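dumping this here so i dont lose it
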């Protein structure tokens, strides 16, 4: 039967074109995403930057520390403490050393990621003095040319305050950092922590002197000391996190569309299969022929798809780079390496297996076709619901309803994880697609009911055509259902989650005003103190630090916020579960209820500067995962420059009763002008704080949406082209009964509009189920559940899907009319 299958393909290649297109695109999608994932396992070496001219770099390290498990900027305890004086003495004893300190130092109006260094370390980063001289006093600095000129007086923002310096010289700029260079003494005043040592002695003696307590980096390993190492790692972590979700959602959609397309292609050949049975083919031979056809088609299409995926993977990478997910240098190069060949081979096998699985059930049904069906004139199909499909749809419906209930009541925090939640949104949409043939009848009667009084035969013909071809209607409506359903669910969830976060933050903040960073990563404590000295102004400015706790032999890392206890109670409305904020003193802390600690118990902590403390739990408060921090007394403020950058991310401001509001706000604006902070209202602060979290969610879910929509748009056009191209006989019958070309065109357009409406209607039902779960989850998490819908985007996608459905109908009908397809049955225009 392989020869018969090959001859069938040669004779009916146009009929198989739609399945080839669907499979090529599906395999290309799987191959591209597989290449993205595998490329992250074999990345090219990044060039050494800050210490390119250093023979060796000594850095404190923790061999158990995995930066992939922590947010960007979080340091291990040895890194936070920095190079100790004892280590400095050991390295200096075997040769010269140069200490490097990296700290926040930003010229007024400069980029927010500017960094300060002591001048002696500049030469190891290949900086060369272009103009002027090296800094000779603590009030002189060197900057990159173009940022300022030699002799200029400039303002520099640091965690220690805002200072005025004279530019003594300029250096050639580099593309990997924007640096400001100070004298050794001034750098030590601004940043007490030593990040690393450049060891100028014999490397062997250096290793022998330091032992196992630190890392001695040479060669390519010196890149581990570069700041870009952490930035690149976070970007790649985002890629590794996002791509599997994209592959799961988009891949499932592709598999469903491809399998449906193959099954639909077999269904369209019912009459042809009956003729083959008439000439003596057994059911087993029919099944083998169809499987062989699928094997030949899938083999060819999978080869084309893998090639397309190989060269299209960089387009996908460029899209992620444009969204800020992947680093700008991320490249996918064609090669014979296993990281390239493995995903291509896997994509090829997936394409073949999906095609074979897609025709398995259809081939079994084709084997049951009786020869007498070749004599039928009517092409009325059944309901389209086989027992297996009905069972699968019922399971999907039950799972979708159960998952919705679980998200709403059992695990509402799932909506905060875009990766897991995006996959859960698939279940109701796919269940609706599987059960679509059952809904064709009711939806058709409902949608056609307003048109029952219309004169003319078109409405009646459209209604009956759809009702008597439920399988075909369901197959053509499925891509529209997937497009609108997944897009609606993902985008509505994104907007609703962002709105709920914003409302939750707004309810949490009591203060009327606030300070927010103005082009800077944070606000200097000196600026906050300056504002607090204004009459009638009360300020609370939590400063971010890190606490380290022992948990069953492991060192747990958590964020801490250093804040005055009275100000915390006055400015923030924490949901206290147990204890009281009034009990917070210099030897206690307030922690989230997620930590499972009781009020009155003791928390043993290590601070970033090496200090050990036993803190009593004064209170616990309710917090979401990712927002659970420990509130610490002011005495730990000095640890912030070791743990992070020593800056406050925001400051809450309230005015004492009776204070002249206009005078106070004017004084605040004057105090912060040019100091890296801006005076805002509470609503403006909340919008700013929620923007970053919303951005991360939007990037993940909208990138998934883009991939799904692109594939489904092509699937809509492809499926409608297949379905309509196979209906030349219907077109001829209409012409025989006296229908004009315009009437024929109107009939097919009206039918495609009805199919699109059925797909959109089913998508709305599936989305409603998803939004019910989302509403319940947000209500539990934030006490409010504003379901916001991006009507303009959803309407645009629905309209575009409908236009593609109409285009997929008009093109083959127009072609058939121009070719005089009616002559096939002996009629003339």
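and the seq i came up w/
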């Amino acid at each position: 039967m392989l020869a018969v299958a090959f001859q069938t393909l040669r004779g009916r290649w146009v009929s198989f074109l739609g399945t080839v297109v669907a499979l090529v695109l599906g395999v290309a999608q799987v191959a591209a995403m597989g290449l993205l994932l595998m490329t992250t396992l074999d990345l090219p070496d990044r060039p050494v930057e800050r210490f390119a001219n250093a023979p060796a770099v000594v850095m404190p390290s923790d061999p158990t520390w995995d930066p992939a498990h922590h947010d960007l900027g979080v340091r291990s305890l040895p890194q936070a403490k920095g190079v100790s004086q004892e280590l400095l003495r050991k390295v200096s004893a075997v040769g010269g050393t140069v200490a490097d300190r990296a700290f926040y130092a930003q010229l007024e109006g400069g980029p927010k990621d500017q960094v300060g260094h002591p001048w002696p370390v500049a030469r190891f980063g290949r900086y060369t003095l272009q103009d002027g001289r090296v800094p000779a006093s603590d009030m002189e600095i060197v900057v990159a040319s173009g940022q300022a000129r030699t002799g200029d007086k400039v303002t520099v923002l640091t965690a220690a305050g805002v200072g005025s310096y004279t530019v003594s010289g300029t250096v050639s700029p580099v593309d990997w950092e924007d640096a400001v260079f100070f004298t050794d003494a001034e750098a030590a005043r601004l940043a007490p922590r030593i990040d690393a040592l450049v060891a100028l002695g014999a490397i062997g003696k250096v290793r022998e002197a330091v032992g196992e307590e630190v890392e001695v980096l040479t060669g390519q390993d010196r890149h581990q000391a570069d700041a870009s190492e952490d930035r690149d790692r976070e970007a790649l972590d985002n890629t590794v996190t996002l791509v599997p979700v994209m592959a799961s959602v988009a891949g499932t959609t592709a598999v469903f569309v491809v399998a449906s397309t193959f099954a639909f292609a077999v269904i369209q050949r019912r009459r042809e299969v009956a003729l083959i049975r008439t000439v003596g083919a057994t059911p087993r031979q029919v099944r083998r022929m169809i499987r062989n056809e699928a094997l030949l088609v899938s083999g060819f299409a999978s080869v084309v798809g893998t090639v397309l995926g190989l060269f299209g993977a960089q387009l996908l990478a460029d899209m992620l780079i444009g969204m800020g997910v992947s680093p700008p240098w991320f490249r996918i190069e064609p090669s014979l390496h296993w990281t390239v060949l493995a995903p291509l081979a896997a994509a090829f096998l997936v394409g073949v297996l999906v095609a074979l699985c897609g025709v398995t059930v259809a081939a079994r049904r084709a084997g049951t076709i009786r020869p007498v069906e070749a004599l039928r004139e009517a092409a009325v199909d059944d309901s389209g619901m086989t027992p297996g499909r009905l069972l699968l749809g019922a399971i999907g419906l039950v799972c979708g309803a159960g998952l919705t209930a679980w998200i709403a009541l059992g695990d509402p925090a799932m909506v905060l994880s875009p990766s897991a939640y995006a996959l859960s949104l698939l279940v109701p949409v796919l269940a609706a697609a599987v059960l679509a043939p059952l809904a064709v009848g009711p939806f058709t009667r409902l949608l056609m009911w307003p048109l029952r009084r219309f004169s003319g035969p078109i409405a009646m013909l459209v209604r009956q055509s759809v009702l008597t071809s439920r399988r075909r209607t369901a197959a053509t409506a499925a891509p529209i259902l997937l497009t609108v359903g997944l897009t609606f669910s993902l985008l509505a969830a994104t907007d609703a989650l962002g709105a709920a976060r914003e409302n939750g933050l707004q309810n949490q903040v009591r203060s009327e005003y606030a300070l927010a960073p103005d082009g800077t990563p944070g606000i200097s404590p000196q600026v906050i103190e300056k504002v607090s000295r204004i009459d009638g102004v009360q300020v609370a400015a939590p400063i971010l630090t890190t606490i380290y706790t022992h948990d069953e032999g492991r060192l747990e890392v958590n964020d801490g916020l250093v804040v005055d206890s009275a100000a915390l109670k006055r400015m923030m409305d924490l949901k206290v579960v147990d204890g009281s904020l009034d009990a917070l003193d210099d030897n206690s802390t307030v922690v989230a209820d997620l930590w499972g600690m009781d009020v009155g118990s003791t928390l043993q902590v290590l601070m970033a500067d090496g200090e050990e403390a036993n803190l009593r739990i004064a209170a616990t408060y309710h917090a979401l995962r990712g927002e659970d921090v420990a509130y610490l007394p002011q005495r730990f403020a000095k640890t912030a420059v070791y743990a992070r950058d020593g800056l406050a991310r925001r400051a809450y401001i309230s005015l004492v009763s009776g204070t002249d509001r206009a005078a106070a706000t004017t004084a605040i604006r004057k105090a912060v002008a040019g100091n890296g902070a801006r005076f805002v209202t509470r609503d403006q602060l909340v919008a700013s704080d929620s923007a970053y979290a919303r951005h991360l969610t939007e990037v993940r879910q909208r990138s998934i949406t883009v991939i799904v929509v692109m594939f489904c748009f092509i699937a809509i056009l492809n499926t409608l082209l297949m379905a309509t191209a196979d209906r030349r006989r219907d077109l001829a019958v209409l012409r025989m009964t006296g229908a004009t070309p315009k009437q024929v065109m109107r009939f097919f357009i009206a039918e495609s509009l009805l199919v699109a409406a059925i797909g959109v209607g089913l998508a709305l039902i599936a989305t409603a189920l998803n939004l019910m779960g989302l509403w319940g989850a947000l209500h539990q998490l934030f006490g409010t559940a504003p379901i916001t819908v991006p009507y303009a985007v959803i309407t645009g996608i629905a309209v575009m899907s409908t236009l593609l459905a109409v285009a997929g109908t008009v093109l083959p009908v127009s072609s058939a009319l121009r070719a005089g397809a009616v002559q096939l049955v002996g009629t003339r225009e």
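DSSP finds 24 helices and 22 strands in the chain.
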